[in-house]
Design brief:
3 strands; 8 helices; single chain; mainly alpha
Length: 176
């Protein structure tokens, strides 16, 4: 999997002030500005997340080519009921993605928003074109609690994804 777009957001201005100058550049020098720190994190995560796909397996490729479509899998666009059910599966207290839409917002306006999402999902289903905000993520670094705070490897990344994109994923997973 290749990361096509990565957005770094500083969630707390204190993080910038206290972290500037605490992470090592790839050359071994300390980063002395917030801009260099963000550049170092971007470089670290691109190296960590962008890797070549595994080798191909002829047996799996031939089995996939010979497979017949599953008659239980629905090919129709998602129904309004599926969208409402998927919205209900969202967990509260989760961060929003690039679009700043939180799970609580969708749940509180479930009746009204489900119609709009249903229309959007049907269009995505027919065209096969997924909005860019659903594919992109905000990567936030969380300190693991051990090791040097100046080493990028002692932080773990979390990806903040679009909540409407998660709803669409729930709809698809519900069909599998």
């Amino acid at each position: 999997m290749y990361v096509t777009a990565v957005t770094f957001r500083i969630l707390d201005s204190k993080f910038i002030l206290s972290s500037a100058g605490t992470s090592f550049e790839s050359a071994g020098r300390l980063c002395n500005s917030a801009k260099k720190l963000l550049e170092r994190e971007r470089e670290h995560y691109q190296k960590l997340l962008n890797h070549k796909s595994g080798t191909t397996c002829r047996e799996l490729d031939s089995a996939a080519a010979a497979a017949t479509p599953d008659s239980d899998t629905l090919e129709n666009a998602p129904s309004l009921e599926e969208v409402c059910k998927a919205i209900g599966k969202l967990r509260n207290g989760r961060a929003a993605g690039l679009d700043d839409i939180s799970p609580e917002l969708l749940k509180c306006a479930k009746k009204q928003i489900s119609f709009a999402l249903h229309t959007m999902f049907a269009k995505v289903w027919i065209t096969g074109k997924v909005p860019a905000d659903w594919r992109d993520a905000i990567i936030v670094s969380l300190y693991k609690g051990k090791g040097s705070k100046s080493n990028c490897a002692t932080y773990r990344p979390i990806s903040l994804l679009s909540v409407p994109g998660k709803v669409f994923a729930h709809v698809i997973l519900g069909r599998l």
